Amino acid sequence: MNIGFGEIALIVFFALLLFGPKKLPELGQAAGKTLREFKNATKGIIDDDEQKTQKHD
């Protein structure tokens, strides 16, 4: 499922309409922090699984 430029532009347009230009940077920053925390958490889980499989080998 690939998102193209048109879909991203449409999402940004509706976000501007919904939240306004002043609130949008705050929402983007919060979304970025959330995504970063999610990636770090999943990386930690994957690293733990790899360590367990290496111990069993």
TrEMBL record:
The keyword Transmembrane helix applies. GO terms for molecular function: protein transmembrane transporter activity. It comes from the Bacteria. GO terms for cellular component: TAT protein transport complex. It holds the Pfam family TatA_B_E. One of its GO terms (biological process) is protein transport by the Tat complex. It is found in: Cell membrane. Keywords: Cell membrane, Membrane, Protein transport, Translocation, Transmembrane, Transmembrane helix, Transport. InterPro entries: TatA/B/E, TatA/E. It is a single-pass membrane protein. Belongs to the TatA/E family. Part of the twin-arginine translocation (Tat) system that transports large folded proteins containing a characteristic twin-arginine motif in their signal peptide across membranes. TatA could form the protein-conducting channel of the Tat system. Forms a complex with TatC. This is Sec-independent protein translocase protein TatA. It comes from Anoxybacteroides voinovskiense.
